[in-house]
């Protein structure tokens, strides 16, 4: 399997003599055949700016950075695929942060590109090619004309057309999981927040956070437009907003008004679940699905990344347990990173967390982050590192009633309360 690299113009090459290497945490490592799959449809090949690719020089019998005006190359995976290794690279300037993407190791093998990844879900529903830009434009124009004063539709039109957010696009295409952001504030200061970064963070936020408080009418309009089929999902908590449960009153009023008019579809919240009292109220109002974002079940790791304000992992666990006990289909949006998530202590903590909270689904999400900045932020490993492939196999064996996937699933049927 050959090393892949790019020149300054973005042209991609494979090295005829050097073998590709991957990275787990801060360790450069060999890539095994059973860790590779063909480059998935919808994946994007990108260069890693300000880096040098590291490969195995067979002639020198050593791993070496590639000389010359070249950079390392990684793949950005579509929904449904979990990264097993990062690209092998070293930074030319350690003070420079990489853009917030989830870079995956790429190799050239048998005449085509392969990636160190695993398919964790069916990628077809979230394949970008299924989002027809012409149809999307028609949907945006129709709903903006129907609701000319609805600021949420105006906000989401930018998310769909400029940022190419598929959840926002779904809102205008009336399909799958649609978005209804509600909050400009947050009770966490996530290191990798994609909608708000402090000026001295070293990397810009790739999206713009909403800057207004919507009305209940604006929220209800979007919810009723989307919840027109039994399979439809409308979701509070998007990448363009803060923590939705900080606007619990808005959500409560909207859910109650919507459920007075229709029982179709599913109402979901994507949340950090730190505001337990707020989450309980939202659950009791008629929530169907809850997806909780987490990076760890260990306090020191969780706190280092999320920087929670007035809550802890214990609050998150209480929220999830309450929702599960009330019949809500619960899942976690598990931000995973090779060399960290697959640490022995992380695996043990997450297994216990999943069993105690009654989780139904673990959504594996590749963490979009600068690796050096992240590794510097979090605790050092305390035990063995098992590897991402082995970690997933352990989850499957130890949690037989939990789905290991990549995005929100519709429950087999609505649970009566």
Overall description:
The model has no long low-confidence stretch (mean pLDDT 93). β13 (103-109) and β14 (112-119) form a beta hairpin. This protein has helices at residues 133-146, 151-161, 166-173, 216-226, 248-259, 276-286, 299-306, 313-325, 344-357, 371-377, 388-398, and strands at residues 2-7, 12-20, 22-24, 27-29, 36-38, 44-48, 51-57, 62-65, 70-76, 81-83, 86-87, 89-91, 103-109, 112-119, 177-179, 233-236, 266-271, 289-294, 329-336, 361-366, 403-405. Strands 1, 2, 5, 6, 7, 8, 9, 10, 12, 13 and 14 form an eleven-stranded antiparallel sheet that branches. A seven-stranded parallel sheet has the order 15-16-17-18-19-20-21. The protein contains eleven helices and 21 strands. This is Radical SAM protein.
Low-confidence stretches: none
The end-to-end span amounts to: 54 Å
Helix content: 25-40%
In DSSP terms (H or I, runs of 4 or more residues), the helix count works out at 11
> What does the main sheet amount to?
11 strands, antiparallel
Let me know the average pLDDT: 93
Give the structural class. alpha+beta
Number of strands: 21
Beta fraction? 25-35%
Taking all Cα atoms into account, the compactness measure Rg is 22 Å
Gross morphology: globular
Keywords: 4Fe-4S, Iron, Iron-sulfur, Metal-binding, S-adenosyl-L-methionine
Pfam family, one: Radical_SAM
Organism: Paenibacillus hodogayensis
InterPro entries: Aldolase_TIM, Organic_radical-activating, rSAM, rSAM_sf
Quickly list its features.
417 residues; alpha+beta; eleven-stranded antiparallel β-sheet; seven-stranded parallel β-sheet; 25% strand; globular
